[in-house]
Amino acid sequence: MPFVFVTTHLLNHALGLVSLEAIEAGRRWFLYLWRNPIGSLALYGAFAAHLGLAYWALYKRRHWRLGGAEWLQIALGFTLPFLLVEHIIGTRGAHELAGTNDLYAAVLLVHWKFNPATGIIQTVALLTAWIHGVIGLYLWLRLKPWYPRWQPLLYAGALLVPTLSVLGYADAGRAVVLLADDPAWLEETNRAIGWPRGETVRILIAAMNGTFIALGASLALTLAANLVRPAIERRRGVVRVSYPDGRTVSLPPGGSVLDASRQGGIPHASVCGGRGRCSTCRVRIVRGADMLPAPSPEESRVLARIGAPAEVRHACQLRPAADLAVAPLLPPTATARDGFARPIYLQGQEKDIAILFVDFRDFTKLSEKKLPYDVVFVLNRYFAGMGEAVTRAGGHLDKFIGDGVMALFGIESDARRGSREALAAARGMADRLRELNESLAHDLDQPLRIGIGIHVGPAIVGAMGYGRVSGVTAIGDAVNLASRLEALTKDYRCQLVISAAVASRAGLALPGRPRHQIEIRGRGEPVEIVVVEDARMLEPTGG
Questions:
Q1: What is the pTM for the complete model shown?
Q2: pLDDT for the residue numbered 486
């Protein structure tokens, strides 16, 4: 509500770019909205609640390890009441006590002619209120999946509204200063305003001073109480929170796990600042789950939104009463996007998938005879063709490894469909290679060749990595075996080697194709493979 008030106030100022009459007409609508019993109760009630919650949050705060935006928002938020006192009492207070008609002309005369210092203060106050509100909206909206699409428009609005407001305010101020040079206009305007006088002025000044003292005393007492509270809480004992790296933090009862991380200097993701909105601070309970309080309805809703299992809780909402051990699930560099609902496989699971490896044959010979520019050009054409074959078949392009490619199939479906998609990708790769050789025929001494290996089996799939260098990948014996099959294409002088498991899962008969039993180091039983000279010879499988 206060932010809506500030927005309408700034938009009213912007009408000064049109004319003094326009800004005054806008004021009438502004007062119609806010200067009535319902609007006043909603506005001042929301303002009092906002201020009270801010003092309560300041009292309850257990650490001061905050981001720049949070520090700025807190600083602006506690500065704002001091900046607004004089304006609120000087306009609304004078209107209620003396019946002063606080026309825009009255405010502009004070700010631009009688006491310019107050004009500077009120401009700073409005901009402070706007920036404080915009930071709050940003910290909230960035957690929404749709926010990146709308961010440019919202950013433009955040810049345009205060800019137009200040320009309109300045234009209207200059117009009033020019009009005030006319004694007749000034006399008529002063009569229409009805300035407060005598005892009313003394009452208004006393109210301003009293409000300043009350705000300052409240802030000082809250900070003092914040300093004393931890010592009082520790008399009730401490809770020990243990982390995977062996560190343990002692926390007074009532503190959250996120507070423990901050207090112990342990990096811990928390995009929303511990408000329970983003879920990036979530942890897995390693020990002590049976002694934990149940999630609140708010925490349960966010956990359900991201599909979290029972052993996962929000560090900012979890306030343990007994010792426990936790493991943060996201890196400290997690962003708002990491808090969105994601497929379960991104969180890590073991499932049967098809894994494909493809490698560029004789790349070293090619690179020795080409200029670096030509090598990069050929490689990019090759990677584009292989990547397109993977995506068109429905697979996930995992990574580029030197001049090779790793792809996953069936991570969102099943091994049967994944095997069929992997074989389709192999055919597509062979087709793209033929097209590439045809287009580069005049630039190559010999056609480009590739080797492809495909296996299907259980693997651990999930989002792995650190910071920006992370993505969905798979690890496990099935991945290693697929890589080994790709290497066997050199030994068998063929383009494709697949495991018999892939042919079986895909329903591919492959009559007459050479089959071999091979020994793989580390595996107790031999692996049956199928050798395919040219992947284009594979027959399409059913859906």
A1: 0.54
A2: 93
